[in-house]
Design a protein that fits this description.
352 residues; alpha/beta; Rossmann fold; 6-stranded mixed beta sheet; 4-stranded parallel beta sheet; globular; binds pyridoxal-5'-phosphate
């Protein structure tokens, strides 16, 4: 006698995977064939030991190239291919480059990545090399690399190279699916969503996702968006504190978390509006708090993240301590990238 089960192949097969499962909520014509590797659909993991409370980690390290950038890149590269360009170009602290390189390879497009010399974690650099991207290094930080891409691609009008930085709206369209998955999996809207913030695209995108669900009547409340920056790279926190809408740039951003080492975030105004509208807050965490977060996720929960990702755990702890969010409220921490991205930081700070 076979055991009884409610499993049905039919039901299982009806469920498409990841980002493209929400295709009806993406502004893309049905006849466009996606360039996809089944990105998204990442684990939402209940954490118990690293923090008390009702807390989940959305582990974006589970994406094909190991960061949430894949959600945006599948949409961005799909559009690039549809436009018939020769290739794509990005400035990056590393993960955007790794993702662009992989998706461009899959689409049969050239890929040029512009990186801050010496400022990219080793795993990410290796991925760009692996997928055959052309690497251009500039002296300075990410902001200088972005300037370079902007001047080349937009001002000098290199139309054969499609720019895929996070001012590209298609990437944000893909990244908003993080919000859809959270609601889909939890069947409720968390009180707070905590996001590490660099160029501020992701926090803007996730808010856009929640707002759309709300506007379509699919949810009836919205979460507080908590944006977390590293102390040495916190232009949005500085701006937030002034209460005005004039960005306070950070000339030489410094933090161990290279993915959020950004002084002039492109999406600063969108992010500022998102956090304000949500009733949330921008806060800073120190590099030590970030490393503490990396360690606790790894040793108490088994979740390996790169430093920038642990800013969300560090930020959650701080926000609770400061009374900014309810200690018992449902919270989701976005763990943006995988530990293997940055092996050097791990071996340096967690040596035996
Ligand atoms: C890109 C990235 C961030 C920052 O996201 P923004 O959209 O630039 O704010 C944070 N963590 C990791 C691992 C990233 O790759």
């Amino acid at each position: 006698m076979p055991a009884k089960t409610s499993f049905s192949w039919d039901k299982a097969r009806r469920r498409r995977f990841g980002v493209w499962r929400y295709r009806e909520l993406l502004p893309i014509n049905d006849d466009i064939e996606p360039v996809t590797m089944c990105e998204g659909g990442t684990p939402l993991i209940r954490v118990n030991r690293a923090v008390n409370g009702n807390v989940y980690v959305k582990f974006e390290g589970g994406n094909p190239t190991g960061s949430f950038k894949d959600r945006g890149m599948t949409v961005g590269v799909t559009i690039a291919k549809h436009l018939g360009v020769e290739g794509v170009v990005v400035a990056s602290t590393g993960n955007t480059a790794a993702s662009a390189a992989a998706y461009a390879a899959r689409a049969g497009l050239k890929c040029v990545v512009v990186l801050p010399r010496g400022g990219v974690a080793r795993g990410k650099l290796a991925q760009s090399l692996l997928h055959g991207a052309k690497i251009v290094e500039v002296d300075g930080v990410f902001d200088d690399a972005l300037e370079e891409v902007f001047t080349e691609a937009v001002i000098n009008g290199k139309r054969d190279l499609y720019p895929l930085n996070s001012y590209n709206p298609w990437r944000l369209e893909g990244q908003k699916t993080i919000a859809f998955e959270i609601v889909d999996e939890l069947s409720e809207v968390p009180e707070a969503v905590v996001v590490p913030v660099g160029n501020a695209g992701n926090i803007s995108a996730i808010w856009k996702g929640f707002k759309e669900l709300y506007n379509y009547g699919l949810i009836n409340k919205l979460p507080k968006m908590i944006g977390v920056q590293a102390e040495g790279a916190a232009p949005l926190v500085a701006t937030w504190k002034t209460g005005s809408n004039a960005l306070i740039e950070v000339e030489k951003p410094q933090t161990i978390a290279s993915a959020i080492r950004i002084g002039k975030p492109v999406n600063w105004l969108k992010a500022l509006n998102a956090v304000k509208e949500s009733g949330g807050v921008f806060i800073t965490v120190s590099d030590n708090e970030i490393l503490e977060g990396v360690k606790d996720l790894a040793r108490y929960e088994g979740i390996g993240v790169e430093p920038a990702s642990a800013a969300s755990l560090a930020g959650y702890r701080k926000a609770v301590e400061m009374g900014l969010i309810d200690r018992n409220g449902l919270a989701v921490l976005i763990a943006t990238g995988h530990a293997l991205k940055d092996p050097d930081t791990i071996t340096k700070y967690f040596s035996y």
